[in-house]
Amino acid sequence: MADSIGQKIKVFLENPLYKKGSLFPFLFPILLTLSLIIHLISLNRRNKSYKKITDIKSVPDYNFDNLKLICIGNILIGGTGKSPVVQKIAKTYLDKGFIVAIAARGIGKNIKSIYCNNTDPVKNLDFLSDENREHFELLNKHSENKGIFYILQNKKRIESLQFLLNEIKNKNYHNLKAILILDDGLQHFSCPRDVNICLWSPELLLESPYYAMPMGPYREGFGKNSFQRLLNCFDFRLWSRTKENDKEEYKSKIKLSLKRFNLEPNKKDIIAVYRTNYFNIKFIENKIKLENFKLESELNHFFTSSNSVTIITGIANPKNLISDLSSLINKKNVITLFLNDHGELNHSAIQLIKNSTIMIMTLKDIFRWASHPIFIDLIKEKNIIGCSVDVHFETLDNIKTEVF
């Protein structure tokens, strides 16, 4: 099927200037001016830099040696694999015995303040955004109640920080170490942080124009010198994402992209190596249950009842998803429907679900649509595979690391 409007816009932004279409020369002056304005606004904010926690007067008293603040984000417009990175770091610190909190803004209709944790009776899960709901479910499955974690959804991440510190005080968690992960917070300067991790794509640095939107696929930046400064200004350059068997080619692209900006690879450069996880999706009393496929044969057997499979998704890079699924859906009749990023169910999607037996969706899609009564009724008797991405981190020397 044809790309959604959101996909077409994304392709337009990522394309080199000479591939932007016949109308582009006429729009060039307007787009260039808007791109420069966005750059100047972001440059002014970035020059003011981020605050330290000692600069914040409104946070409760706390032994800040026990608190780590990590910000994970990008200057790209979606599709960099940020969510799996957030989840991996959260799981790592859960395993170390930390209280883990993820602070995120929410999306669309779910931009509202919702605080959830796994130790109290869980409420308001349906009001979490798709990304935050996925964070909650995967951390809950990973921890098996052996750790404490929070999902803090608020437009103002500083308020999420205040909430976490009050929770630590009120529940007498003072002796426990805690980490607050600021999800997609690089453009939000009011909340302090100790570490800034920026996700980059070597392919886009090699192929796309060095301009902020609407000329290029970036939230800030204008010209080669600007991007050289941006590549240097974060604590880690996280290159996301590549598969295990594509690492060497990917590393070559990273080195080439850095060379274009007269930069040498160093300890800042970390690769996110990923694989796709698959879950058998069950709905029990209208609640989502994730069941692992213990063996690859179980996953393959799942498909034997039909020669066709339907893929419906509303994510930023659906073509990456199709590539990930290529071996699984080999020799099947594949029907696809790509909605806009974070897209809601439309009439076409509902009709396609009605007429499909086996479907593949990302966990984000499933959690976003799970509050839709029609969706629940339609899929109760269907075979649904949910997929998510898991990552591990390596240096350019192929050394696994948890440096964050």
UniProtKB/TrEMBL annotation:
Its EC number is 2.7.1.130. The keyword Nucleotide-binding applies. The chain crosses the membrane at residues 23-43. InterPro entries: LpxK. GO terms for cellular component: plasma membrane. Pfam families: LpxK (PF02606). One of its GO terms (biological process) is lipopolysaccharide core region biosynthetic process. Keywords: ATP-binding, Kinase, Lipid A biosynthesis, Lipid biosynthesis, Lipid metabolism, Membrane, Nucleotide-binding, Transferase, Transmembrane, Transmembrane helix. Pathway: Glycolipid biosynthesis; lipid IV(A) biosynthesis; lipid IV(A) from (3R)-3-hydroxytetradecanoyl-[acyl-carrier-protein] and UDP-N-acetyl-alpha-D-glucosamine: step 6/6. GO terms for molecular function: ATP binding; lipid-A 4'-kinase activity. This is Tetraacyldisaccharide 4'-kinase. Transfers the gamma-phosphate of ATP to the 4'-position of a tetraacyldisaccharide 1-phosphate intermediate (termed DS-1-P) to form tetraacyldisaccharide 1,4'-bis-phosphate (lipid IVA). It is an enzyme of class 2 (transferase). It comes from the Bacteria.
